[in-house]
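Handout for the seminar on molecular recognition.
Each group receives one record of this type.
Step one: identify the two inputs.
Step two: read the structure output and locate the region that could contact flavin mononucleotide.
Step three: write two sentences on what you found, then compare them with the reference statements printed after the record.
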Amino acid sequence: MKLGKLDLGNKLIVAPMADVSDAPFRKIAKEYGAGLTFTPMVSAKGIIDNEFHALRIFAFARDEKPIGVQLLGNNPEYLAGAVHELKRYKPDVIDINCGCPVEKVTKLNFGAQLLDDPILMGKLIEAMVNVAEDIPITVKLRLGKSDGKINILETAKVAEESGASAIIVHARTRSTKYKDAPDWDWLVKVKEQIKIPLIGNGSLFTPQDIKEMIEKTNVDTVMVARGALGNPFLFSRYRELIENGSDPGEPDLEEIEKVAIKHARLIAREYPEAVATIKARKNIIWYFKHLDGVTKFASTIMRTKNVEGEIKMIHEHVEKLKQNFYPKDDRELIDQKFKERVLFWLKE
Ligand SMILES: Cc1cc2nc3c(=O)[nH]c(=O)nc-3n(C[C@H](O)[C@H](O)[C@H](O)COP(=O)(O)O)c2cc1C
């Protein structure tokens, strides 16, 4: 699959995730074989105004390439201005967020609110394309506002006609929750209608899920968000599945321990201690979410005061897991809680 000059082959894309897809997260995903990662959504106006917070969100190191930056906005001038600013950092892709359903985003008429105004959406894309030169512009969409207001065939066409190099479709509407399944039929219909590459997104948690979406809907590749949390192994497992025909399965405990610690240390290097402690905590817990004792582990690690303390907890937890110390968890329930809540998934 090609995005402008960037040839992804059959590699996968890591979704933009606010407060999650930071440099440590992206680095680990890339090491395990992700083909393209994204910085979290960032305000186009924030970039133009040189706001420190905005600059921090999209900052990336050169060795992270290929990388995409995702913009949030609804003003053609601001979006064009932000693309212009970004050009000197040479991201490989610039995306416009037309899918975020979170209220603090939609009430500013950003994100999924743009699905209601395809004409404006087209103007925004055109404004970006006009200044982007050889950087491909992509558009991240949802199916529409709600089940009765699905307009993905229209918005996909608008994106293509406005010069987008590819679209990413999260196969849910703005009002569909994570607990409802994505609707793959729409991916099939979109693919039949457009010539630019289509990237599928929504509830891909295993290499088999990914293979199935690609085979059944004909999307060119996929983008993964929740499935990559504490699980960079998804990328290497998928590659094995495609290249050698078999999925090596979940990594062993040693591998999980090693990567969780590596991730935590990268976070410690990136942020001041207090911030790092909080950021590392949620990532560490995600690495162990499919193993027994995660609730107990999470409550213990919540009490640690720094990343080194968290790393000590990882060692202790792994030892307990090896000794089958924990009673069996209700895996299905825990998995469902994680998928639906993501961030505060262990709170009652
Ligand atoms: C913690 C978190 C943060 C997210 N932040 C963004 C974002 O900044 N921009 C965006 O377009 N989507 C964002 N999303 C949505 C994902 O990119 C993705 O479209 C959605 O989660 C469906 O994919 P999944 O089923 O693989 O999780 C976020 C999702 C999560 C879980």
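Reference statements: The domain at 2-244 is CATH 3.20.20.70 (TIM Barrel). The chain is about 45% helix and 10% strand.
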